[in-house]
Amino acid sequence: MDPVVQKLMQRAVESHQAGDLEEAARLYPEVLKRAPDFAEALNLYGVALSGLGRHAEAQAALRLAVTLAPTNATYQQNLGRVLLEQGDLDGSEEALRIATYLAPKLAPAQANLGNLFKKRGKLQDAIACYDRALALAPADYKSWNNLGTSLRELKELARAEDALRKALSIQPDFVPALSNLGLVLSERGFSEEALSCFVRAIERDPDQADLYVNYGNILRDLGRDEAASAAFAEVTVRVDPRHGGAWSSLGNAALAIGDIERAGACYRKSLECSPADPILHFNHALYLLLTGDYVGGFAEYEWGLRADLRQPRREFRKPLWQGEPFPGETLLVYSEQGLGDAIQFMRFLPAVKSRGGRVVFEVHPALETLLAQVPGVDQVIARQNDGSIGVPFDRYVALLSLPTRFGITLDSLGPDRPYLAVPEPAREAAIRRFAGVPGFKVVLSWYGNPVHKNDARRSLPLALLAPLMTVPGVRYYAVSPGERTVKDIEETGLPIEAWSLPVEEAAAVIEAADLVITVDTLHAHLAGAIGQAAWVLLPFMPDWRWLLDREDSPWYPRHRLFRQGKPGDWPEVVERVRVALAAEIRRRQ
Q1: Architecture field, domain 1-69
Q2: In this predicted model, what pLDDT tens digit does every residue of 175-184 receive, in sequence order?
Q3: Check: CATH 3.40.50.720 for 326-406?
Q4: DSSP H or E segment with residue 140
């Protein structure tokens, strides 16, 4: 090798190794002027350019290196990594597969192939690559972090936690792993430890907006809304005043403490900053719906499909129904979100039927028997685990998209009378259960689905309902399936008879009882659809469907709403319910 070239190359490599990428990127071209076919210089020049964010130039240099030495696995993997950073997934995959074929034990190639699969959404393939990379290079903390995030996406939270802790054991100050571990711990219910992860991360990187947002969201989950507001405000005031997510989270925190006007301003600001972010539109939708703007709210609610916040999200190679007539065709309406949502929104199905031919309604399997004879529906089918639809159809639409198709307002919610009929066998079974039983019969429900994001605020400990047991002449029944019902009753010793029933039988018991007293859960919607009287206990800031500052519900005429006067104050709510229940018993005597 020419001594001048050798000396220049040595200086370039030394600068590169010292982290002076600008100097290295200046020297490598000097080498290449004298030795244009020097593949290693091209390779390292491409790596330096990539480190400087000059990806297009990096790609050009690396392509030349690969052309000169096509069997060099390192060059292929470097090219694959740069193509991945540029978003050329097909080109990246080709280069990385060549690299792993040429050198199966080249750990960076396995790791970057994992990164590519992760970006493609092929999480199992990504995990397999990370496992191979880590077997070859167990000190690669970035791959441990990427493995952890992939496992988190698959909801394998225990394994994700282990991987992220491994990353931090190698590099304790690695902020992405601290942040990701915080998210995993929060999802596992270890919120206090999650907070400590974000505190450490913020100490090490005080100018990363997303750290404050995630930290604030965990504070909100713990009911520390004022502290959460301070975290979000740190972003909007100092770190990044144009961070739409922080403004939206600040709106959520303001809403939680009842500052409705400020919340609205924050949501509007969030969309001004990030007008294409579907999550921010969805948060704005919930605010509009809560405040009674159903036309604007349901229009914004459609963004929830793009953000994967309305599950299960279904996509078919069929036209999406927009409300047009469909005579002679079959329309698939698929239910989404919770069981209560299906009960609440099925009221719009007769209007769907009036616009066309055949209507197929896909529901959660737990609702199949109850909804077998839904008005406005020709066939009810149960949702399959693989997402397949076993009947032919021509168009499709999500159930909770129906309000936008019909321009629904508070004054046009549909029937103000019962619209759900309990199956006759279940009704007869409920009548037999109550045959000869004296007293005023109340179905009691004190908790909802624990995976619901707001369940900690909407559910309450059964022990807090003890004052209701002092009202004479009342018998209490619980119809929620599951171990928690029995456990809560055993631990409190409250006189509640528990029946673990499928939904259709629970609905029949609700119909046969005198009253339902429930938190915001399925039983509130079952009672409303059947036409039974229900008293609904609501947190200080309820779900959007219960609106604000009213004791009635436009959705269900026989509902009475009991709201917290201040956040977390269930005892005061229960006392008002006790007084009202005693008055109801006296009225009926």
Answers
A1: Alpha Horseshoe (1.25)
A2: 999 999 999 9
A3: yes
A4: none
